[in-house]
Amino acid sequence: MFTLTEMVVDRLKMIKLVTLDFDGTTADTMPTLEEIAVKLITKYYLLSQEEAKTKYRLTTGLPFLQQIEQLFPGHPANNEVIQQFEEEKKNNIFSLPLFDDTKETIKSLKNMGFIVAISSSTTQPTIEEYCRKKGLFVDQILGFREGFEKGKDHFDFLMKKFHLTTKEILYVGDSLKDCERAQAANILFIGKIGLFTKEDFDRISQSKLVITKLSELTELLKTFREKENK
Q1: Which residue would you say has higher pLDDT here, 228 or 136?
Q2: How far apart are CA 123 and CA 145, in angstroms?
Q3: 116: closest CA among 61, 179, 172?
Q4: Contact at 8 Å (CB) between 144 and 120?
Q5: How far is CA 68 from CA 59, 93, 171, in A?
Q6: Contact between 11 and 21 (Cβ < 8 Å)
Q7: Which of 82, 83, 81, 172 is nearest to 120 (CA)?
Q8: Residues with Cβ < 8 Å from 110, sequence gap 6 or more?
Q9: Which pTM does this prediction carry?
Q10: What is the DSSP annotation of 25-87?
Q11: β-strand 140-144 against 115-123: which pairing, if any?
Q12: What confidence tens digit (pLDDT) does each residue in 65-87 have?
């Protein structure tokens, strides 16, 4: 199923920690978040729904405040839009489900000996509360706060806490920004198809690895963990 280059095989053999994005990767939240964002963008910036959706998707993976500041720099409505989005997100997110295979995949990865972390642009208190309410248990939850965000900040924290190198960490995410930030930090990346297609990821991904559901990670990583344990 997977086409693996020699470089990717060598990297997969070294993985000790699997890091999962949250929105759209671990939890099925993106349709609702996109709906909220498109509603606000069309209202305050007078774009069509299609234009708003395209702009939102291309910047997903960033904290929403960075998305808006990047898309509409200096616009007087930015603060109000960011505040409304975060309020609506918090009001809705706890009713949104994990993907059906999330818990089983995390359990399988941990049983194989992998450390499992969540790295997200959702704020720390919100993501911790969500995981607690859903009964989702991982080794580390990292959310967004000013000066500490998905990408290098989170990877540096994980490397220091678990005594790892960049080559021992895998990142799985559903956005092009996830891919860019992982690769900028020399972290192996796997794209989860949803917002973006395999062709979208292939244009920028060095690994060319994509999955359609989290459970495929078990299939991919099991082979390498079994070889290591022999």
Answers
A1: 136
A2: 6
A3: 172
A4: yes
A5: 9, 20, 25
A6: no
A7: 172
A8: 116, 139
A9: 0.93
A10: TTBS-HHHHHHHHHHHHHHHH---HHHHHHHHHHHBTB-HHHHHHHHSTT-TTHHHHHHHHHH
A11: parallel
A12: 999 999 999 999 999 999 999 99
| Beta-carbon contacts of residue 102 (< 8 Å; ≥ 6 apart) | 26, 27, 136, 214
Closest CA to 196 of 215, 179, 182: 179
The DSSP H or E segment spanning 153 is helix 152-162
User: Where residue 3 falls among pLDDT bands split at 50, 70, 90?
Assistant: confident
Per 3-state DSSP, the chain is made up of helix, strand and coil in percentages (nearest 5) of 55, 15, 30
Residue 230 above 60 pLDDT? Answer: no
Note whether 169 and 19 are within 8 A (CB).
yes
Question: Do 221 and 19 contact (CB within 8 A), yes or no?
Answer: no
Looking up tokens 């200096």, which residue turns up? 74
Residue 129 CA: distances (Å) to CA of 34, 48, 135, 145, 146: 21, 34, 10, 15, 19
**CA gap 118, 205 in Å, rounded:** 21
Local structure of 96: helix, strand or coil: coil
Sheet holding 188-192, edge to edge: 140-144, 115-123, 17-20, 169-173, 188-192, 210-211
Q: Residue 5: its pLDDT value, please?
A: 85
Q: Which residue has the tokens 């220091």?
A: 160
